[in-house]
Amino acid sequence: MARAPINGTTLSWARAALGVDLHDLARHVAVKVEAAQQWETGDLHPTVGQLRAIADKLERPPAFFFAPPPEAADVPAVPDFRGKHGEGIPTVVLREIKRAEQYRETLLELSGVPEGSLEYISFDRSGLVKAAARLRQELMTGWPAKKPATPGEMFNTWRDLLEMHGVLVFQSTRIPLTDYRALSVHHYPYPVILVNGADAANGKIFSLFHELAHLMNRSSGVCMILDNNEVEALCNAFAAEFLMPAVEVRTFLGVQSPTRPISSVANRFGVSTLAAAIRLRSLGQIDDQALTDQRAENDAEWNRARAAMAAKAGNPPPWRLRYRDLGNTYVRTVLTALQTNRIDYLSAAYMLNARVPMIEKMQQEFHRRGEV
Question: How far, in Å, CA of 125 to CA of 270, rounded?
């Protein structure tokens, strides 16, 4: 049986980069953990078939394992703000970070430094309102004349505006919300925001600006969007002020005097009812009991929605999910390079993490949207 003389140190490096333990790797390759240990010590080499399974699990080309390990990690160390002490960032989330880093490098290679970029000015509690107002003014200059009709359209509009200003926004598929809600990786150019596609559209919108607050302060984070420490509380306060400016909320309530202020504010400012309730409580417009009741209502509504989705027959086709996760900016860049013969289908398949039939479907969607 043919054996692959891999570098055991490289295998150990790649496994650590994605937080994969030996038992998980051995289970994936269908061998005993002792065999996986011997691969890393060099006392045993995997078969060619086992190497393919290793490469699949650790998301590296098989040839990667024959060379010495890289000097620097290609999965950035991102602070964990989820409040789950001792657990570490899950492998599925580290994998998404690694992919987002690859997408960023691809964009830099194909299109260079973006023309537009936000002005990143750090802020603290005392400067939060001013920073949110300045950013809102900057982004709203590109707001479409026709207001988005649904939360999903609203999220896509904010996403497009951020990407026009050099912030990359990706989504992830099939990762539980209990693992993370959103994360950010600070870079210049092309900082990255990654949101969990399992979240509701209004929740994703709030997450966008929570993570943007991290980037404004030149920091990164994996987040659950909870007020579990001062950094997260500051980012939540920034997102709330950006999406629901205190002056505008008070003016709206004073003029409209709505009988149901939570849902009215949620509809007016395009946020979730829970985000609206938290904002109204912070502004002294509702009491603690109203906020508690809204939390319970949101939890019940979310559970009903998840049950309905689970019972629904069929899922969106993989190519559509891939297009959603990568977003217009990235897909446009890769498909334009393919159309102009700057790259071939093999390169496009790698860049889009897709097979050729999926690429053809994405091309059809690309043209349907009028991207060319």
Answer: 24
